[in-house]
Amino acid sequence: MHKHHNALGLATTLNPVDPVTLVRPHAAARAARFFVEKFPGRSMYAVKANPSPELLQILWDNGITHYDVASLAEVRLVARTLPEATLCFMHPVKAEEAVREAYFTHGVRTFSLDSLEELEKIVRATNAATDLTLCVRLRVSSEHSKLSLASKFGAAPHEAKELLFAARQAADALGICFHVGSQAMTPEAYSNAMERVRAAIVEAAVTVDVIDVGGGFPSSYPGMEPPPLERFFETIHRAFESLPVSYSSELWCEPGRALCAEYSSLIVRVEKRRGSELYINDGAYGALFDAAHIGWRFPVRLLREPDSRARDMEFSFYGPTCDDMDHMAGPFMLPADMQAGDYIEIGMLGAYGSAMRTAFNGFGSDQIVIVDDEPMVSLYDDAFQEVASNVVTL
Ligand SMILES: Cc1ncc(COP(=O)(O)O)c(C=O)c1O
């Protein structure tokens, strides 16, 4: 992989024709250390957010030892990249063959489930193994999150008792897990979900060994600036301590976005301007899926030397494919004198950005360059930490 000092220098000296993904290993390392040191339990990494082997290695080197995998391809990838890592297969609906290979070939012992059918599948596929950690996923609200995960998975309140009871019989260790939705904007998302956990434990009257609060930890995007992560940790810690099983159970979390959003950004070139619309060389089928399909706004900045002195105005983007849907409404704030040939850095694409790229219509590029400047926004930098230090610590 090539290295360069910073995004501006790269754009202005190399004038790249295709989009370039910038990666910042120090940003991912800092996020990993933050979770390892401050989350009051075990932090796993949800591999789906960004399965880059280099990133997996950085997270491992900085203390992340457990990985939430959701497909057999992810199981194989992490087993190959980090042979010492512990894998937890946290997709509640799996192919029986996938469970079998995960258990017998890759040593996976932790599986999630949200139905009796899935429990039977896991028991069959592992030949009724006696060393399983089975995590029952409860359905919880996504009302405080920007991306809902409330419809598809999770046992409803009236199903939880029977499922917990059955899983307890089959499991060596029993867990309860949930996901509050991605980019949760307030810690209450977790305290509310923990109330669902409490109700389920009390109703089923089972002993529980693991409480897994899932992912959902936010990053910072324009118009979506969350409170410091410490507040989330503090709320979760308090809610966990008040559960009847806290004395005998472990607390886990499975962040994806928060561990890798700051890891990468993208340099794109403007190929045409039409009023306030910029035609750029990456888009909905590239790393900007979320910008196009869910209207997510990402931080942007012009990479030009000397810098523009024009005032910022609102722009939208068109991607390079021949499809009207390849459109990112933004608005993205950039200088009013933007023109064809300008380079733009689009930040915070480390989570669910590079991971979703396709080569549709012949566009997209695999160019990746390591840079050592700071990400455009950070939840983990000094300025943010000063705000966070006013928060009561655990
Ligand atoms: C089971 C599970 N865990 C963790 C995550 C990671 O979520 P996030 O990136 O919001 O932290 C997801 C995302 O879909 C998930 O489905």
UniProtKB/TrEMBL annotation:
Its EC number is 4.1.1.17. Coiled coil: none annotated. It catalyses: L-ornithine + H(+) = putrescine + CO2. GO terms for biological process: putrescine biosynthetic process from arginine, via ornithine. One of its GO terms (cellular component) is cytoplasm. Residues 35-261 form the Orn/DAP/Arg decarboxylase 2 N-terminal domain. Pfam families: Orn_Arg_deC_N (PF02784), Orn_DAP_Arg_deC (PF00278). GO terms for molecular function: ornithine decarboxylase activity. PROSITE patterns: ODR_DC_2_1, ODR_DC_2_2. It is an enzyme of class 4 (lyase). Keywords: Lyase, Pyridoxal phosphate. The active site is at 322 (proton donor). Residues 263-346 form the Orn/DAP/Arg decarboxylase 2 C-terminal domain. Pathway: Amine and polyamine biosynthesis; putrescine biosynthesis via L-ornithine pathway; putrescine from L-ornithine: step 1/1. The modification N6-(pyridoxal phosphate)lysine is found at residue 48. It comes from the Bacteria. InterPro entries: Ala_racemase/Decarboxylase_C, De-COase2_C, De-COase2_CS, De-COase2_N, De-COase2_pyr-phos_BS, Orn/DAP/Arg_de-COase, Orn_de-COase, PLP-binding_barrel. Its cofactor is pyridoxal 5'-phosphate. Belongs to the Orn/Lys/Arg decarboxylase class-II family. This is ornithine decarboxylase. It comes from Sphingomonas ginsenosidivorax.
